[in-house]
Amino acid sequence: MTAAILIAAIFAVLALALHLASVATAIVRCKPAQREIPAPADAEAISVVIPVCGLDNYAEDTLRTAFRLDYPRYELIFCAARAEDAALPVIRRLMADHRWIDARILVGDERISENPKLNNVFKGWREARHAWIVMPDSNVLMPRDYLQRLLSHFESDTGLVCSPPLGCLPDGFWAELECAFLNNYQARWQYFADSLGMGFAQGKTMLWRREHLERAGGIRALGREAAEDAASTKIVRRMGLRVQLVEPPVRQPLGLRSAQDVWKRQRRWARLRRASFPLYFAPEILSGALAPLVALVFVAVQLDTPPLAPAVLFAMLWYGAEMFLLVKANWHVSRHSLVCAVLRDLMLPLLYINAWGGSRFEWRGNDMRAVEGTKLS
After folding, report:
1. How far apart are CA 351 and CA 374, in angstroms?
2. To which H or E segment does residue 259 belong?
3. Which of 58, 91, 295, 366 is 20 to 30 A from 141 in CA distance terms?
4. What is the pLDDT confidence band of residue 377, given thresholds at 50, 70 and 90?
5. Which of 194, 119, 144 is nearest to 164 (CA)?
6. pLDDT band at 376 (very low <50, low <70, confident <90, very high)
7. What dotted CATH number matches 35-257?
8. Please, are residues 169 and 130 in contact by the beta-carbon 8 Å criterion?
9. CB neighbours of 124 closer than 8 A, spacing ≥ 6?
10. Angle at Cα 307 formed by Cα 305 and Cα 309, nearest 5°?
11. Residue-wise pLDDT tens digits, 104-124
12. 46-52 and 366-369 as β-strands: parallel, antiparallel, unpaired?
């Protein structure tokens, strides 16, 4: 057996083993919550700072969940860059319907970085009254015990608690494809990395102890990267602390998506990962099924063995495990899920090449660059 054949065979076996290990990890860690966590009697007050920028699909449903949290002491601070933002009338109506909730709106655009989301959040962080600050995106569904679940994962060596976005309520094939990216690919690998002690932040939900971020230079320090979650990861690690993931992950209703929507979002994330963590991003080309499947076919051909049977068996094990994860974790699964998982893996090399080929991307109408050191003077 030549060295090339041996290397290809070992790679295919190791890739499948890692894939199955990541699936098993996600099944264990992302099992559906069996019951709500009651709020402690001595619950510490929490500030929930929510940036808004236009109306996402299911906007009123997601925003309403912030007003219905089962937690005795929390404030809601909604941040908008412009007074005419389309989300503000919805928020004002929800505030009128929930007058007993401590909620307010802050409007203004204070540019502390090239990241418009961070600029929007800045005023909310500054005006937050409490030591615990949660920064969730406005398009997540917060369970009633959202705050106590986040707090339950904050341990003595924790610097930040986060959650990857879990896609739900997709409308159409392309939204199903986005589920295949968000759920059984990105969330799966993120929980696996976290279990290996390499947890990293996700901006969809971030729980900070204010003193930790202030020790690192305050919220302005998150402007050192194009993405605030990448900056958060580096800050927490420099402090010798860990990023923890909440279990199960929070859900994001997707609604209708176009092929362009999915491509732009995944390209943006790929370029941000490449810019912020190039060494971690470099092997991503090998993370889908395509590379190990090609390696397996190469081995079979070199050994004069018909490649179809081992290729089919490999694909059944790979994608069967993913479908099993969707069922066991109670994540979205449909007749399109298998096809979308295969299409996602075919797209991964294209996204990888594209990520290395440029740095610009668009976020909610803002032209941005995926580079380090983006803080404004």
Report:
1. 23
2. helix 259-276
3. 366
4. very low
5. 194
6. very low
7. 3.90.550.10
8. no
9. 47, 49, 50, 51, 77, 78, 79, 106, 135
10. 105
11. 999 998 889 889 999 999 999
12. unpaired
Q: Which three-class secondary structure state does DSSP give residue 131?
A: coil
Domain boundaries, the chain: 3-27+277-369, 35-257
Q: Which helix (H) or strand (E) holds 230?
A: helix 228-238
DSSP label at residue 33: P
Burial code (b: 16+ CB inside 10 Å, e: under 16) for 287-325 equals: bbbbbbbebbbbbbeeeeeebeebeeebbeebbebbeeb
The one-letter amino acid code at 270 reads A
Give the model's pLDDT for residue 114. 87
For residue 172, the tally of other CB atoms under 10 A from its CB is 15
Query: Looking at the predicted structure, is the pLDDT value of residue 65 above 60?
Result: yes
And the tokens for 108? 């203004």
Q: Could you tell me where the beta strands, DSSP code E, fall in the chain?
A: 46-52, 74-80, 102-107, 132-136, 158-162, 166-171, 205-209, 242-245, 251-256, 360-363, 366-369
CB-based contact 96:8 (threshold 8 Å): no
Whole-number percent of the chain with pLDDT over 90: 85
| Strands 158-162 vs 205-209: parallel, antiparallel or unpaired | antiparallel
What pLDDT score was predicted for residue 365? 65
Q: 193-238 pLDDT, tens per residue?
A: 999 988 899 899 999 999 999 999 999 999 988 889 999 999 999 9
Average pLDDT over residues 358-366: 72
Per-residue tokens: 114: 């090239």
What mean pLDDT is predicted for residues 315-320? 98
- Contacts of the segment 4-9: beta carbons below 8 A, 24+ positions apart: 4/298, 4/302, 5/298, 5/299, 5/302, 5/303, 8/295, 8/296, 8/298, 8/299, 9/295, 9/296, 9/299
| Alpha helix segments (H runs only) across 87-226 | 87-97, 116-127, 146-152, 173-181, 188-195, 210-215
